[in-house]
Design goal:
Blueprint (H helix, E strand, L loop, with lengths): L1 E4 H11 L4 E4 L6 H9 L4 E4 L3 H15 L3 E5 L3 H15 L4 E6 L19 H5 L5 E4 L6 H13 L6 E5 L1 H5 L1 E4 L14 H13 L3 E5 L1 H5 L3 H11 L3 E3 L14 E3 L8 H9 L2 E5 L18 E6 L15 E4 L2 H12 L10 H18 L1 H13 L5 E4 L20 E2 L10 H11 L5 E6 H4 L5 H7 L5 E5 L5 H9 L15 H7 L3 E5 L5 H10 L4 E5 L1 H8 L5
Parallel strand pairs: 2-3, 2-4, 4-5, 5-7, 6-7, 9-10, 9-12, 10-11, 12-13, 13-14, 15-16, 15-17, 17-18, 18-20, 19-20
Antiparallel strand pairs: 1-8
């Protein structure tokens, strides 16, 4: 036990837990933590220009590395600013720890109007976090952080929030840090495993539907082993992309742009046993391919609430287990089982090819361009798709080949998340190409973070698809509201000149054929780069014409 401030205890406990980087924005209530980072070196501190970015970067870092992402903000407006990003992390089951300041402990709940005071910050954060807590004694800081880490590492890995008042951070006391722990993950009980394997092995047409939980658990190899043992097609959600490479003829997308997704629907109709793993599996019951009463649904998930949270039929079997351990057990058991699967692999491959060919036929020019970009870049290239029509290309024409290489905002659909989330992904993967695909409206949310990229040498390639409007909303007005356009058109700066003002290299693309060369140039620069896609090239990518 050693004497230290509460702020130093924060830094020492984070170090003890293996934290390597913290994304932060300073403010008066948390300056003792910053001082702790100075006096207890070992953690890289990256300061951003907006609190929302601290949590987005932590999320991107976490989802692409498998490590816990940590952000640090002041209370009140800082926590409020970060909440949208925490909501995105919650939707994606991302392991993010948000450390927040507070007002002085003796003022909490008094309503006296202290700087940054809000009535119930823990309550405010509850809808977007798995767990929230506060300590008011400096001696309790290490155990509080340790419990926050435990909450992330056990069960479903959703974000948590832990807050500490400034007087607690300033207190000097004898404080003991806590050793990091490894936590056991749930496996499938023997009797349940036998039942699962019996359903799968006896199926004539077993189908696997896999989501982001597979990638979060690092269970891609185990998933492929089960699929190979069953000779079963694998349907991947957007969050599950990469668990089986897109080049595998037995892998199809759960749904994507245009006619893509038709293969998954046809396979769902044909299946007699559906094995859902690490996914919400919330399919619209009105869909003609939604699970039927005569189909067996085996659902393996770390979170048992997903079994009762269905728009469709309840699972025949709901199995609570870690995806990596559970799939490992199933794969091992299937190796000695008599598998009855009768899928025609050539027919499955033909369905997949039909989807790909239909999308290529609809949009041959951009499809071919993205196929070329895929050939030009390493297999482990990471793509963070923003809320833009151009996000349809990764995972289709630009094949996803590795786990944790396609990042989405999941069901939250958070406009503005793409660029700052990609910055965090690049911090966690400095030697891997990372592309941020963003629209002009979404990029403008965090444009100031170009300075962050330059200051901390975050060599991200940011591709802005500029249609001079909030594209989806403008489309909505043109179609559903019969052309009543109001409030959806944008005036934009010269993004290349804007990038230059920050010391960032800019590349302007108006010709679609020029796009692959621009991406090659940007990746080769090994520096922060903005690729501004404008004019006909943006129209071809997004199908929303600029005026």
């Amino acid at each position: 036990m050693a004497q230290m401030t509460g702020g130093e205890a924060v830094a020492k406990q984070l170090l003890a837990e293996g934290v390597e980087v913290v994304f932060a924005l300073p403010g008066v209530q948390i300056m003792h933590i910053f001082n702790g980072f100075f006096t207890q070196p070992g953690i890289r501190v990256i300061s951003t220009r907006h609190e929302q970015t601290t949590a987005y970067m932590a999320d991107g870092y976490a989802r692409t590395t498998g490590k816990i992402g940590v952000c640090l903000v002041v209370p009140g407006p800082g926590a409020y600013n970060a909440a949208a990003a925490m909501g995105t992390a919650y939707a994606a089951s991302s392991p993010v720890l948000m450390l927040s300041g507070q007002i002085d402990s003796d003022l909490i709940g008094t309503g006296r109007g202290a700087l940054h005071e809000i009535g119930d910050q823990l309550g405010f954060m509850k809808p977007v976090t798995k767990w929230q807590d506060r300590v008011v004694k400096a001696q309790d800081i290490p155990e509080g952080i340790h419990e926050a880490i435990r909450q992330i590492k056990t069960g479903r890995p959703r974000p948590v929030e832990f807050e500490i008042p400034p007087d607690t951070l300033a207190t000097v006391a004898d404080i003991q840090t806590v050793e990091a722990e490894e936590y056991s993950r749930p496996s499938i009980p023997a009797e349940t495993l036998r039942a699962v394997v019996n359903h799968l092995a006896s199926a004539r047409r077993p189908l696997i539907w896999a989501g982001g939980g597979v990638n979060l658990a690092g269970a891609d190899a185990e998933l492929r082993r089960v699929a190979d043992a069953l000779g079963a097609p694998v349907v991947l959600t957007r969050e599950g992309k990469g668990a089986v490479p897109d080049t595998n003829p037995m892998q199809v997308n759960a749904g994507a742009f245009g006619t893509s997704g038709a293969a998954s629907a046809e396979l769902m109709r044909q299946a007699d046993v559906i094995f859902a793993v690490g996914t919400r599996f919330n399919i619209n019951p009105a869909a003609d391919w939604a699970p039927r009463p005569d189909q067996v649904l085996v659902h393996l998930d770390i979170d048992d609430t997903e079994f009762s949270n269905k728009l469709i039929k309840k699972p025949t079997m709901g199995v609570v287990a870690d995806a990596k351990l559970g799939l490992g057990q199933v794969g091992e058991a299937l190796s000695g089982a008599r598998v009855q699967s009768a899928w025609d692999k050539r027919a499955v491959a033909a369905l997949k090819k039909r989807d790909d060919d239909a999308m290529r036929a609809q949009r041959p020019a951009p499809y071919g361009v993205w196929e070329q970009v895929r050939k030009d870049l390493p297999e482990d290239t990471i793509v963070v798709g923003g809320i833009t029509g151009a996000d349809r290309w990764p995972g289709t024409a630009f094949a996803t080949l590795k786990p944790r290489t396609l990042v989405t905002s999941s069901y939250m659909g958070t406009l503005g998340y793409g660029f700052p989330t990609a910055l965090g992904a690049k911090v966690g993967n400095p030697n891997t190409p990372v592309l941020s695909l963003t629209g002009d409206g979404g990029f403008s949310y965090a444009v100031g973070e170009l300075a962050t990229a330059v200051q901390y040498k975050i060599n991200l390639v940011t591709v802005i698809f500029d249609n001079h409007r909030f594209g989806a909303s403008n489309d909505d007005q043109l179609t559903r509201f019969k052309g009543n356009v109001i409030g959806t058109e944008l005036f934009n700066p010269d993004f290349v000149a804007l990038a230059a003002a920050y010391g960032v290299k800019g590349i302007h693309v108006t010709d679609l054929d020029r796009f692959p060369a621009a991406i090659r140039e940007a990746v080769a620069a090994n520096a922060p780069v903005v690729v501004h896609v404008d004019g006909d090239a943006a129209y071809q990518m997004d199908r929303v014409r600029a005026t």
